[in-house]
Write a structure and sequence with these properties.
The complex is a heterodimer of chains A (about 300) and B (about 325).
Chain A (H helix, E strand, L loop, with lengths): L2 H32 L6 H19 L2 H22 L9 H23 L10 H4 L1 E5 L2 E4 H23 L1 H11 L1 H6 L4 H23 L10 H15 L4 H29 L2 H26 L11
Antiparallel strand pairs in A: 1-2
Helix pairs in contact in A: 1-6, 1-7, 1-9, 1-10, 1-11, 2-3, 2-4, 2-9, 2-10, 3-9, 6-7, 10-11, 10-12, 11-12
Chain B lengths: L1 H10 L5 H22 L3 H24 L10 H20 L10 H23 L4 H21 L9 E2 L5 E2 L2 E2 L3 H23 L2 H11 L1 H7 L3 H27 L1 E2 L6 H14 L6 H19 L4 H14 L3 H14 L1
Antiparallel strand pairs in B: 1-4, 2-3
Classes of the chains: A mainly alpha (about 300), B mainly alpha (about 325).
């Protein structure tokens, strides 16, 4: 086995894991605190990518695009919470799924109306577009490395925010007992709106980071949101630490599965059989993992300590 | 005593409005599409055939969602399985290989669709039903994603691009290639499905799953193994939905993994909720409204998903109980 390739694939897995974490952390916040299943998180991911694409062309710089698009995506999230989402808190999960599925249809069509049916490729500035040699023979695209490092910084920041600030304290308190927090005089409505906006910013950031690699396109979030849900379920719903660890795990399993299951299968069965089975199994791998986890540890691998 | 007598007598005052609505929906489906076909509007018959196939799927989902409280977010998987249970045998009968499953026989297709769907439901249901709430929603979705990727990766059957069903299922005396015959076959299956669900939910079995939806702990305390009852309902529902898929495959003559996309499962859920979950005719009424609305909006704009999405959100927020719920409250207002 080629060691260089393995290292690079691990880095790719890590990069996918980071993106998944950015999405899953928002889901964790909204699910853990508001008990809300939000499929429309996928739309915020897409909206972030599109706003960033437009701003990149307007300002001529991807970096400015991201910096300006982040608060705008947060604003979209805030408006969404005020307009629709807050009416869902008292409803059951089925209603959440259906209403936010409706929101996906609305956002996808709005994106179609505003940005057109074609995807938008986002150009990277020169200093991000190249490759770096990490060690002898290990060459990795600079931008993907930026995603990994940036994502880890965001994860660290989020950890600090949740565990060591007043807002974080309110978030944790809201997660364990909503009624008590509001009884203590905290404006729970505003807190929820802020938390939702924060989740929107994180989802938007993920969209902005992936846009230069793929492109900003309609429905771009509809596939990865499902993976993000797999992440929070495997990690244990409501646990930020669980979301992070599960995101890394799933990013790595998915990436390594796609590159190595082929070889693994060829070792134990005929080449022809491996050829057919490998793609199927590697695509299903994370769902198999989720089914196994739910069967043997329904509360997830790293459930939150509270509740 | 007096109270119970008065409600009793008001019930007997005539045929309940909900029953009338149920009958009306089913009769309308029997009469209107063939009449339109006779009037030369063949397009409407194809819309109606798709509608009836999806109505069967919605009826099957309603059995577990509406009466059992099991929110399956992966029911489109069974539609896909059913459709491929027609496509794969036809493919092999036409192009060779795999003699064991190669067949044009409709009975074989139906048997395969129902058996494989039931098996898939048994295995995934046995695991899924160990979980509750949002976990159940997500694990059923995960299993349907597995089915999705399984069909995507099967290159022999077209993978992503899908599979053309060259010839419809063959039944003695019935030609499914004829649009009107196909429609009536689908309609007959829909009637049978509605009747089956009606008998099931009003039987002892149905009372147990409805009881378990209301209060699982209490049903267990009374001595019912609710897990087994739920699993049985889940398998019946999956098999029924597989049958709907086999019919849909015959109708579209082109099948692809896209039929299993999670958004399809979401649409099925919407049909059930729109019509009224836990009512007999609700899913049928929901499927009719869904498809008719879709066709009308498509006619006016390519951006039809926008009003459709708005309607979905509004339905969830303000139209609780769905169409049949509205009928029921009308009935209550009438009777005082």
């Amino acid at each position: 086995m080629d060691l260089t390739l393995l290292v690079i694939q691990c880095l790719n897995g890590l990069q996918l894991g980071i993106l998944l974490f950015l999405l899953a952390s928002g889901l964790t916040l909204t699910f853990g605190i508001m008990d809300l299943v939000n499929l429309a998180h996928a739309s915020l991911y897409m909206v972030g990518a599109f706003i960033c694409a437009s701003l990149t062309f307007a300002t001529g710089s991807f970096v400015w695009g991201v910096v300006l698009a982040l608060p705008l995506t947060g604003l979209v999230g805030y408006a969404l919470e005020r307009g629709v989402i807050r009416h869902l808190y008292t409803r059951n999960h089925l209603d959440h799924v259906l209403a936010t599925f409706g929101l996906i249809l609305i956002f996808d069509t709005l994106a179609h109306l505003i940005w057109g049916a074609e995807g938008i490729a986002v150009p990277l500035p020169g200093f991000l577009d190249g490759q770096v040699e990490l060690a002898a023979g290990i060459v990795f695209p600079t931008f993907r490395l930026v995603i990994i490092v940036g994502g880890l910084l965001v994860a660290g920041g989020l950890y600090g925010l949740v565990n060591h600030t007043r807002l974080g304290m309110l978030i944790r308190a809201g997660a364990s007992n909503r009624t008590m927090v509001s009884a203590l005089g905290i404006d729970i409505q505003t807190l929820f709106a802020l938390v939702f906006a924060l989740g929107a910013v994180l989802a938007g950031l993920a969209g902005m980071l992936i846009a230069p690699i793929t492109e900003a396109s309609i429905g771009m979030g509809n596939e990865i949101i499902i993976t993000a849900f797999v992440v929070i379920i495997v990690g244990g719903i409501g646990s930020m630490r669980g979301a992070f660890l599960a995101a890394m795990l799933i990013g790595l399993i998915d990436t390594l599965g796609r590159s190595y299951i082929d070889d693994l299968f060829k070792a134990v069965m005929s080449a022809a059989a491996a050829e057919t089975a490998a793609p199927a199994v590697s695509a299903m791998l994370i769902y198999i993992l989720m089914a196994v986890v739910l069967t043997f540890r329904p509360q997830g691998l790293f459930p939150p300590k509270v509740r | 005593m007096a109270v119970s007598r008065s409600t009793g007598s008001s019930r007997q005052a005539g045929i309940p409005l909900t029953a009338l609505a149920t009958l009306g929906v089913l009769v309308a489906l029997a009469v209107i599409p063939p009449l339109l076909q006779a009037a030369g509007q063949e397009f409407y018959l194809t819309v109606a055939t798709r509608l009836v196939c999806l109505a069967i799927a919605a009826v099957s989902l309603n059995l577990i969602l509406g009466y059992g409280g099991m929110v399956s977010f992966g029911h489109a998987a069974y539609i896909g399985i059913g459709a491929y249970a027609v496509g794969i045998p036809v493919h092999h009968e036409t192009y060779g290989d795999w003699d064991l499953v190669a067949s044009y026989s409709g009975f074989f297709h139906i048997l395969l669709a129902v058996a494989v769907s039931a098996l898939f439901a048994l295995v995934t249901g046995a695991l899924s039903l160990r979980t509750k709430g949002v976990y159940f929603i997500m694990i059923t979705m995960a299993f349907s994603q597995m089915a999705f990727f399984l069909f995507v990766s099967m290159e022999t059957y077209g993978g992503d691009d899908g599979l053309v069903i060259d010839t419809p299922s063959e039944f003695p005396g019935v030609d499914l290639g004829d649009p009107l015959s196909l429609y009536f076959v689908c309609y007959g299956v829909l009637l049978a499905a509605v009747y089956l669900v009606h008998r099931l939910v009003n039987s002892r079995f149905g009372m147990v799953i409805r009881g378990a939806m209301g209060n699982d702990a209490r049903m267990k305390a009374v001595g019912f193994n609710t897990y087994v009852y739920r699993l049985t309902a889940y398998v019946i529902s999956g098999a029924m939905c597989g049958l709907a898929g086999a019919l849909l495959g015959n109708f579209t003559t082109f099948i692809s993994p896209e039929m299993i996309d999670w958004t399809r499962s979401g649409e099925l859920m919407f049909m059930v909720i729109l019509g009224g979950a836990g009512t007999l005719a609700g899913p049928v009424a929901g499927a009719i409204s869904f498809i008719v609305l879709e066709e009308v909006l498509k006619h006016f704009t390519i951006y039809w998903h926008l009003p459709f999405g708005v309607l979905l959100v509004l339905t969830v927020l303000f139209f609780r109980g769905g169409i049949m719920g509205m009928v029921r409250s009308l009935e209550e207002r009438w009777r005082g």
